[in-house]
């Protein structure tokens, strides 16, 4: 079952997807398919725009660790 979110002021689609469900660029195609016309609204979504979030797994976050000092 798909969820829906509402965009906040000054929010881009990728920021809204990350905020709502930790979705990343690999999920963008599925979100745009579930929301016809959403891409035509521009880079910054109008405040209060509903966005349907299809059932897709979140993108795993990979972080590199940089160690500045050694023991």
List its salient traits:
alpha+beta, 71 residues, elongated
Q: How would you portray this structure in words?
A:
- This protein has 71 residues and is an alpha+beta fold.
- The protein has one domain (3-53).
- Helices cover 23% and strands 11% of the residues.
- The chain contains two helices and two strands; from the N terminus they run E-H-H-E.
- It has helices at 13-21, 28-34; strands at residues 3-6, 50-53.
- The chain has a two-stranded antiparallel sheet with strand order 1-2.
- It is elongated.
- The termini are far apart.
* Tally of individual helices: 2
Mean pLDDT: 88
How much of the sequence lies in strands comes to: 5-15%
Query: What structural category characterises the helix and strand content?
Result: alpha+beta
In whole angstroms, the N-to-C terminal distance is: 50 Å
Q: Which of globular, elongated, flat, extended, rod-shaped describes the shape?
A: elongated
Series of H and E elements = EHHE
Uncertain segments of ≥5 residues (pLDDT<50)? none
Taking strands numbered 1, 2, ... along the chain, how are they ordered across the largest sheet? 1-2
Number of DSSP E strands: 2
Q: Into which percent range does the helicity of residues fall?
A: 10-25%
Q: What does the largest sheet look like?
A: 2 strands, antiparallel
Count of structural domains: 1
Radius of gyration, taken over Cα atoms and rounded to an integer in Å: 15 Å
